[in-house]
Each structure stands twice: as C-alpha cells, then as structure tokens.
Amino acid sequence: MDYAELAVAIRRWGAELGFQQVGIAGTELAADETHLLNWLEAGRHGEMDYMQRHGTKRSRPQELQPGTLRVVSVRMDYAPPGIANGWEVLADTSLGYVSRYALGRDYHKLMRNRLQQLADRIAAQIGPFGYRAFVDSAPVLERALARNAGLGWIGKHTCLINRDAGSWFFLGELYTDLPLPLDQAATAHCGSCTRCLDICPTQAIVAPYQVDARRCISYLTIELHGSIPEPLRKPMGNRIYGCDDCQLICPWNKFSEPTAEADFSPRHKLDGAALIDLFAWSEDEFLRRTEGSAIRRIGHERWLRNIAVALGNARDTAGVVAALQSRAAHPSELVREHVQWALQQHATAAPAT
To answer: What is the structure's pLDDT at 250?
Structure first.
C-alpha cells in the first residue's frame, strides 16, 4: 500500500467533510507527559480528577488504544459570523458573556460523526483497519498531538494557535494503526508577546504555558461544582460560561475565519443576552433551551450560580436587585449563597441613575 498517497487522500476527504486542516502525528509525547505530571503534582487541575484518573493513557496513545501507530489530527473553525463583538459584550454589565465555542450546537457529536465518516472513507479505500475517534471523549493530549501534526503551536495561554487561522477552532483525533507518513511539527511564534497573561481577569496564566485551572474562569463556571471562591467573583465580571479574553486579545486571531457550520450559530441570542432574562429561565426552560448545547452539562443550578455572580457585578439597578431577590429563597443552598453575595454587592453600591 502507498501510505503517502493514502495520507494525501485523507487530507482531501477531511476537507470535504468540513475540517479546515488535517495532519498526521506519531505517538511520542514524553516531554508533554512530564509537563502534565508536573501540572498535576502542583494541584493545578483543581477538581478535575479525570485528568489524573487514567494514569499515562493520556500521554501514551498505545495504552489508550492498543496498536496505535499514528494520530490523524483535525481542526474545525467554530467562531460564527456576525456575532456580537466580544469586547462590547464584556463591557456591558447587563449582558452575559458565553464563550464563543458554546453559542450553538455541542461540537462533540458533530465532529465525532465527521471523524467516523472519515474512517469509513479510509476503510472503503483500503479495507478494515484499526482506529478510534476522539473529540474530548477520552484522555487525549489533543493540543500536543495537533502541534506534532503541524496544526499549530501551543501558545502561552496553552491554547493551540495556527499562524494562518488563529485559535478559534475545535480539535479531534483519529487514532489509527496505519503507518502513515508524519507531518512536521509546528514551531512556536508567540515571541515576546504576553498579552494573554496580562489580560487574564483572574491571573490564571501564572507563567507562559502554565495555567492554574483553579483560577481560570472557564474552570470556575464549568468544571467547579461547588462555591466559587469569593476573591475570584469580582474578576469574573459578566462571564457566565467560559472565558475568551486570552483569545480575544491574541494578535494571531486577526487571521481567523468565521465558520461555515450553521450548527455553531448562536441560539437564543446567547452571543449577548440580558442577564436578567437568562436568570429568569426555569429549570425546564434551561433544559429545553440548552438541548444539544455544551452549556447543558453544568445544569440549571450552576447556571444560576454563575449568573448570580454576574448580576452581583452588574450596574446597580432596581431590575437587577429584583431579579436577585426573586431567587433569594431558591431551594439550592449553592444558588442562595451566590445570590446573597450578589445582593450584598448592591447593598453598598451607589444607585444607578
């Protein structure tokens, strides 16, 4: 079999399936494994126990999927065209900021289906082969593999950056037992820039290429199940699901292109919806409006927790206070605690005119 010719075909099929780039990496991740183990040892993963639960499977692909020789890494743009300007939403404390990746349909199923289609095309060409598709669905060092596959470099904020496409894209992998030719790993081009470190609202990027998840707003609003530490509530501003500041400020994103995937378009005007309106969603409304969305995973309770913090950081208006008071007796102790904190912020604030 001509594996070089097959690799060319895989890239072509990937493009036809909507991936903006396809690369091929090996399985050697020793340096990245050391970085991961040091990060875990420092406790910077917080409550994300799954980061260490699988041992070295994350950094040793053959342990996760026996027989793996190569990893086909893909990326897909997700920033929808025509959405509200991120900085303008962040500046308007009456609005809720939702990370751009979560505005539309959950990407996991969409990308996994495309990867399965890619595997089916390969099988149709060469016959049965060993493979397994991943999209945030298993312990995979996706950014390191994507870097080795030539899709971009890991920036100082630890997101993957492509010099021609910025960083607004998802990653997926196809572990395979095919001895495909390797692509050249991407080189880093952050230079002396520290904008992502400087802009981080909670100083979660503690050093270049080092993020303390326990301070990261994405972790606080999505991964953390309990109470948000009080010192980090004010810096959260109006960010209610994730945080994009380090990407919004990155100069490489001037090269990003809007996605052509209609499924990633905002639902329910989540690119700039009013906090008071979002806070009024009942649990049934929340479940209905987040069906097929990545947001659903946090549940209604944490949704209200996050918005309560944002309302506490909003301009002091009668509407904001009334919204908070409407949830002051909520059955959840977690919600009540954050509502009470938010009301305290307004009790000492000068009334808005």
So the answer is: 98
The pLDDT value recorded for residue 296 is: 97
Q: Which residues are catalytic?
A: 136
Amino acid type, 322? A
Question: Token pair 């948000």 is at which residue?
Answer: 228
- Identify the three-state secondary structure at position 291: coil
Question: Rounded to whole angstroms, how far apart are CA atoms 316 and 297?
Answer: 30
Residues in the annotated binding site: 58, 136, 160, 171, 190, 193, 196, 200, 216, 218, 243-244, 246, 250
Closest CA to 293 of 245, 241, 237: 241
pLDDT along the chain (353 residues), means of 10: 97 98 98 93 86 86 97 97 97 98 95 98 98 93 98 98 98 98 98 98 97 97 97 98 98 97 96 98 98 97 98 97 98 98 87 52
Cβ atoms of 184 and 90 closer than 8 Å: no
290 CB contacts (<8 Å, ≥6 apart)? Answer: 296
The residue whose two tokens read 């075909």 is: 9
Q: How far is CA 243 from CA 41, 68, 115, in A?
A: 25, 34, 27
Q: What type of residue sits at position 165?
A: A
Sign of CA dihedral 124, 127, 131, 137: positive
CA distances for 166 relative to 128, 159, 335, 344, angstroms? 36, 10, 37, 41
The one-character DSSP state at 151 is S
Q: Residue 72's beta-bridge partner residues?
A: 24, 174
Q: Give helix then strand counts, H and E, for the chain.
A: 16, 10
Backbone dihedral region of 38: left (phi > 0), alpha (psi from -120 to 50 degrees) or beta? alpha
What secondary structure does DSSP assign to 148-193, as a single string? HTTS-EE-TTSSEEBTTTBT-EEEEEEEE---PPPPPPPPP--TT-
Instruction: Please name every residue paired with 257 in a beta bridge, in sequence order, or none if there are none.
Output: none
Do the beta carbons of residue 76 and residue 107 sit within 8 Å?
Answer: yes
CB count within 10 Å of CB 53 equals 10
Q: pLDDT at position 348, please?
A: 76
β-bridge mates for residue 133, sequence order: 174
